[in-house]
Design brief:
Radius of gyration: 26 Å
Helix content: 25-40%
Distance between the termini: 53 Å
Order of helices and strands: HHHEEEEEEEEEEHEHEEHEH
Largest sheet: 7 strands, mixed
Number of helices: 7
Strand order of the largest sheet: 12-3-2-1-5-8-14
Length: about 300
C-alpha cells in the first residue's frame, strides 16, 4: 500500500528541466541523462552485488565457501579502479564540451535576428525592458518562437538569479553589474520563470510568466503594452517601482527611458543606485561603462 500511495503523492510534481522547450534546455537535459546513465554503470552493479552477497553469505547458507584468510584479488582491483576511472574520464570530456557548447554568454546560432530583453530583479518582482520596442513590463515576459533572445541581466537590489527552467540556463543578477544569457523558445506556450537565489521575505512569490508566441501574437502583445498610460522613466518611475512589494501584479509601461538599462548600472558606479533601502554604494567610483559579471570575476 505504501508503494501504491507514493506515486499518488508525487502526481502533482513536475520537472521543467526534463521537459525543455528550447535548444539550450534540450542540451542540458541530454547532459543530465547522459551523466546519470554513466554513473548508473557503477551504482547498479553495486546495488545488485550487495543484495546477492547478503543472500549468498547469510547465516543459514551453510554451503557458502568460507575463506577467512582471503585478502586480495587483482581482478577485483582492476574492476574497482578501472571502471570508475573510465567513467570519470568520459564525464570530464563531456562536461568540458557541454560547458563551452552551452555557455550562457554564447550567442545562439540562428537565421533570425537576435532580440534583446533587459531583465532587472527588484524586491520582489522582475522588471523587463524591451529597448527595441520601447516598452517595459513587470512580472510578464513575451518572446517570439524560434527567435534567439539576448537577456541582459542585472539587479536593482540584492543578488538574485534569473531562470526560465523550461528554456535552460540560469544566470545571476547583481547590482551594478551587467550579466547576460542567451535563450530561445522552440515551441509556443507559457512557461514559469523565477529567481533561484534566495533574496528575502518575498522570494517565494518572485515569479513571472514567459509567453513564447508566434510573431503575429508577439506584435499584438507589444501593441497592447503600448496602450498603457504608464511610463518607466529613470530614475523617478523606477524608484517608485523599486520599493519592496510581495506578489506584485503584472504591469505594462508604454514608454521607457532610451538607455534605461545603462543608466541603472551607471547609477551604481556613481554611488546613487537604487532606493535608499537598498543600501549604500561606493561613492568614490567615477561613472563608467557597465561592468560585466565575467570582468568582475
Amino acid at each position: 500500500m505504501t508503494w501504491l500511495t507514493v506515486p499518488l503523492l508525487l502526481s502533482g510534481c513536475g520537472s521543467a528541466l526534463m521537459d525543455p522547450s528550447g535548444p539550450v534546455g534540450q542540451g542540458l537535459k541530454s547532459l543530465i541523462i547522459t551523466a546519470f546513465g554513466l554513473m548508473l554503470i557503477v551504482v547498479i552493479p553495486v546495488i545488485v552485488m550487495t543484495i546477492l552477497f547478503a543472500w549468498k553469505y547469510r547465516g543459514t547458507n551453510l554451503a557458502a565457501k568460507y575463506t577467512p584468510n582471503w585478502e586480495h584479488s587483482n581482478v577485483i582491483e582492476l574492476f574497482v579502479w578501472a571502471i570508475p576511472c573510465v567513467i570519470i574520464l568520459f564525464l570530464g570530456i563531456l562536461t568540458w564540451q557541454t560547458s563551452h557548447s552551452y555557455d550562457p554568454h554564447k550567442p545562439i546560432a540562428s537565421e533570425d535576428e537576435t532580440m534583446t530583453i533587459d531583465a532587472i530583479s527588484l524586491d520582489w518582482k522582475w522588471l523587463f525592458i524591451y529597448p527595441e520596442q520601447g516598452i517595459a513590463t513587470v512580472n510578464e515576459l513575451a518572446m517570439p518562437v524560434n527567435t534567439p533572445v539576448h537577456f541582459r541581466v542585472t539587479s536593482g537590489t540584492v543578488m538574485n538569479s534569473f531562470m526560465i527552467p523550461n528554456l535552460g540556463s540560469q544566470i545571476y543578477a547583481m547590482a551594478g553589474m551587467n550579466n547576460d544569457v542567451y535563450l530561445e523558445g522552440s515551441e509556443i506556450g507559457t512557461f514559469r520563470g523565477r529567481s533561484t537565489h534566495y533574496s528575502g521575505e518575498g522570494f517565494s512569490e518572485m515569479l513571472f510568466d514567459a509567453h513564447v508566441t508566434s510573431q503575429a501574437d508577439f506584435q499584438a502583445w507589444v501593441d497592447k503594452v503600448k496602450q498603457s498610460p504608464n511610463t518607466m522613466m529613470f530614475p523617478d518611475d523606477y524608484n517608485k517601482l523599486a520599493q519592496p512589494t510581495i506578489g506584485a501584479p503584472v504591469q505594462y509601461f508604454s514608454q521607457v527611458s532610451p538607455d534605461f538599462y545603462g543608466d541603472l548600472i551607471r547609477s551604481y558606479k556613481s554611488g546613487h543606485g537604487g532606493p535608499q533601502s537598498h543600501g549604500e554604494h561606493n561613492q568614490a567610483q567615477e561613472p563608467s561603462m557597465p561592468m560585466s559579471a565575467q570582468a568582475a570575476e
